[in-house]
Amino acid sequence: MSAVSILLVDDHPIVREGYRRLLERQPGFGVVGEAEDAAGAYQKYRDVTPDVVIMDLSLPGAGGLEAIRHIRQWDRNARILVFTMHDGAAFALKAFEAGAAGYVTKSSDAAELLRAVATVARGGRMLSDDIARAIAVERLGQGRSIVEDLGPRETEILRLVATGKTTEEIAVLLNLSIKTVQNYHYQIKSKIGARTDAHLVWLAIAARLVEIHDQPEQE
């Protein structure tokens, strides 16, 4: 049986090296490529067509949600496992909506990551225990995430706005016109009930799409 080929996507070279060593110590796994951002992930995927992509969501510029969506547009059979620090239900649900097959947090142990890679490679789906609990709590609770009515691209634009990106910067990152980004911005505010851009940012923080330390420093 041939080895499972893996593409690693993370913006930290040292982190990627650690994952590579972990994965390549396992029989039947082989890392065939690496990327540090969404554009690089898409290009490398087309170059090597791996069996599994291990994708971080926190990437410079366009994030992992956009990378997942873009790869899946090119190959509907792409098997993508999200491996990220984001442990909120909102991000996990949007990752699956974008086309991910698995979601494991970086607080999980190494064995859980390895099981997830094997499961996704076989065509299955995988959630780490903490994310499964987070989704269950949200579904059983009375609250409702603001992002439930947003698509993956709207969620990514909301995240970029909340991290301080301008309309022009978002347009370049996502290869959209400025007018299209402005329309998305208006639709997002309407859908989540944001009265102002500042209110929109705080709603994004409350939904755990961004953390306080992701905010741009004020002059």
UniProtKB/TrEMBL annotation:
Coiled coil: none annotated. This is DNA-binding response regulator. One of its GO terms (molecular function) is DNA binding. InterPro entries: CheY-like_superfamily, NreC/VraR/RcsB-like_REC, Sig_transdc_resp-reg_C-effctor, Sig_transdc_resp-reg_receiver, Tscrpt_reg_LuxR_C, WalR-like. Keywords: DNA-binding, Phosphoprotein. Residues 5-121 form the Response regulatory domain. It holds the Pfam family Response_reg. CDD domains: LuxR_C_like, REC_NarL-like. SUPFAM superfamilies: C-terminal effector domain of the bipartite response regulators, CheY-like. GO terms for biological process: phosphorelay signal transduction system; regulation of DNA-templated transcription. The modification 4-aspartylphosphate is found at D56. Residues 143-208 form the HTH luxR-type domain. It comes from Methylocystis echinoides.
